[in-house]
Every structure is written in C-alpha cells, then in structure tokens.
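User: My collaborator sent over this chain with a note saying "see what the structure looks like." That's all I know about it. Can you take a look?
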Amino acid sequence: MIQTVLAWMRLLRLPNHATAVADVLAGFLIVSRTPFGEWPADSLWLVIGASLCFYGGGMILNDVFDYRLDCVERPERPLPSGLISVALAGSVATVLLAAGLLLSIATAVFVQSPTPAIVGTSLLIAIVAYDFQLKQTSVGPIAMGICRSLNWLLGMSAVGSQERIEQWIAPLGMGIYVAGITWYSRREAGESRPKVLAGAAAVMFMGLVLAGSFPWISIQLGQAGWLVGDRQTSWYLLWSILVTAILARAVFGIADPTQARIRAAVSNAILSIITLDAVLVLAASGESWAIVVLLLLAPAFSLSRTLSMT
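Assistant: Without extra context I'll predict from the sequence alone. Here is the result:
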C-alpha cells in the first residue's frame, strides 16, 4: 500500500505542484493587489484547484506517452516498473485534466468573464499537444514555456478585471525561463552536450531578465506598488542574486555534464520558480504576500528530498 502511494506521488511529481500554485498565486496578487489580511476572492481557490489538476494530469499523461521510452531509459519509474498500470494512469490523467477545465469554466462563471475558461482551454490544449507530440520536437521547450505562462495567466484571469499590458511581462518571462529549463533537461537521461546546455542556460537568463523588467516597466507607468524609494535598488539586487545562483548551478552542469549535475541544476531551477514568483509578488504587493508565496518552498523542498522533480 505504501509503495503504491509513493509510486503515485512520484508519477505526479508532487514536489513540483507547489511551483504551479506559486505561479497562480503570483499572477492573482500582481493583478488584484489584494491587501494583506484581506481574504482573497473565492475565484483564486478555483484556479488553484484547476492548476493542480492540470499539472497533475499533465505529469501523468507525460509518462503515459513516454512509457516505451521509459522502459529503456528510466525503468525505475512507476509505469515501466509495473507499480501502476498504464491504463489506470491514463484514466486518472483524463479525469484530472477534465476537472481542471471544469474548474476554469466555474471560475469564468464566478467572475463573469470568459477569460478563465479561454485560458483553461488553451492550457489543456497546450498540455496535451506537448505530451502527445511536441515534446520530442524542437518546439517542445517552447510548448512547455507556453504551459507555464498560461498557468500564470490563469491566476491573473481569476481577478475578473482587465489586466494591464505590462503585467503580461512576468508570465512571458517566466515562460521563457521554463522553456530554457526544459531545453536544458532534454538529455538528462543520456549524454548532454555543453553547447546545447549553454544555449539553454542563455534562454533561462533571457527569461529571467524579461521577468525582472516587470517592476521597472511598472514604475515607468506609475504603478510602483511596493517599490518606492530605496526599495528599488534592494529589489534589483535581490533579483540579481537569485539569477546568479540559478545560473551558477546551470554552469556547473555545463562544465561537468553528468546526469547527476544536470538533474541537480534542473531541480534547483524548478524549485527556484517559487522564490522567483515570491520576489515578483514582493515588487507588486509587499513583504507579507511574498512570504506567503515563499512558504510554498517548505512542502516543495521536503517532498523533493525523497521524490524526483524530473
């Protein structure tokens, strides 16, 4: 029984789910600017549920379509090892993805705007397209980046009001960052080439630079949020430190492209999504909400000690 539960947790990539919640929460807070202490709108909880369903369904579907490859390259995974049947996994993935879509539609009804339903439908299509066909092609990393950007937009759409154009910079930058991570990790089960890894790290850097420009552009448009006075310099310094720490691990993998190094760099980059989201929330909504987002590191880090994130 315990072995089966652990197998499902591995199949779902459970530590990663905290990053999906962080994205939705960050998107919601950046648009809503909800004062700390005020209970967020119920629509937030609907899109968090939708995001978790989409993420879980996508992770399972990924392994269903990768079953034959994993039997050769990753026989220890839940499906090739026989701990979970492929048919059951496919059924659970279908239910989760359908639940994600229904929750997105429910959010649209709740906020009286079609946007959450449109974003949810787009995310469902992107997930299935990536898992079924695109991940083995050159556009696979782009498709994964689109999924991450749409997850951010799901949180933004739950506010029910018109987002400002500069607020799209954060999800776009984070999507490019995740595209870089996906490209970096593509050969983690085999031999990785330093030039390919360097290119992927460069894409990660470009995404982080773009996401980090969101506060600066907001300030230029008179939407400083928390960033008043000397706080701007402190925020940029904090963002720069985070970017350096993430890319340093990626550089270690480029210098020594072993499976262990690559997986360590990828796991670090994925976990860092929560911290990056928290710092973006800091710029818009202040320390208290940033700490709330940062607290998602606790379950993510704890679970990552025993469950693989890749």
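A starting point for your reply to your collaborator: The chain is about 75% helix and 0% strand.
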